[in-house]
Specification:
By secondary structure, the chain is an all-alpha fold. Helix content is 62%, strand content 0%.
Length: 196
């Protein structure tokens, strides 16, 4: 960037450049070598002001005790003890201890009974509302016709998940196949070509 462009863009900077200043900051000569001494001189107690701004009146500490007692007497009445106070104190304390009123003891028995009745009523209500549904026994023919009519496609694994072991034993005992019927079926349905 030449001088004309700088003068056009930033005239103040151009004037500084004309004065031949390398930067805008100048420190006095020997500034950094004497800065420690000047700071310590400013903080030295001899340079602090002689008066702090707080003062106490003359003879303040000699008369403070009397002035405090005078204020207390003006503001508060001094209480006096009755005659023979300490001589009768012990008797009065023991009298109060023996004449203490007894506190009433309330029985919580009726509240316990009420709570138990409420819990019992809640359980009875829960039991009467919640009745488990009883299993409905469906015969095999109805189930088979339902599956065939609705064209539900179930594979062997899905049927195995749906039927538990007890139901499987029941089905096996009800639907036993005779050996002769099985042989006849196999002879009719299976050909020798399917075996190999």
């Amino acid at each position: 960037m030449n001088h004309k462009e700088l003068k056009h863009i930033a005239p103040t900077l151009a004037k500084l450049r004309e004065k031949n200043l390398s930067s805008g900051f100048i420190a006095p000569s020997d500034y950094f070598s004497t800065i420690d001494d000047s700071i310590l001189q400013a903080l030295f107690p001899g340079n602090l002001p002689k008066q702090s701004g707080y003062y106490t009146p003359k003879n303040y500490f000699d008369t403070i005790e009397n002035s405090v007692f005078d204020r207390i007497k003006k503001n508060k009445k001094v209480s006096t003890l009755p005659d023979n106070y300490f001589e009768t104190l012990e008797d009065r304390v023991f009298e109060r201890l023996t004449n203490e009123k007894t506190t009433k003891v309330r029985s919580l028995k009726k509240y316990w009974i009420g709570g138990l009745v409420a819990v019992a009523a809640s359980l009875l209500l829960f039991i009467s509302i919640y009745k488990p549904q009883q299993e409905q026994n469906i015969d095999v023919a109805t189930l088979e016709s339902y599956l065939l009519d609705n064209e539900i496609d179930l594979d062997t694994y899905e049927l195995a998940e749906a039927i538990n072991d007890n139901e499987l034993v029941t089905i096996e005992t009800e639907n036993t196949i005779k050996q002769s019927d099985l042989e006849d079926y196999l002879l009719e349905a299976v050909s020798e070509e399917n075996l190999y």
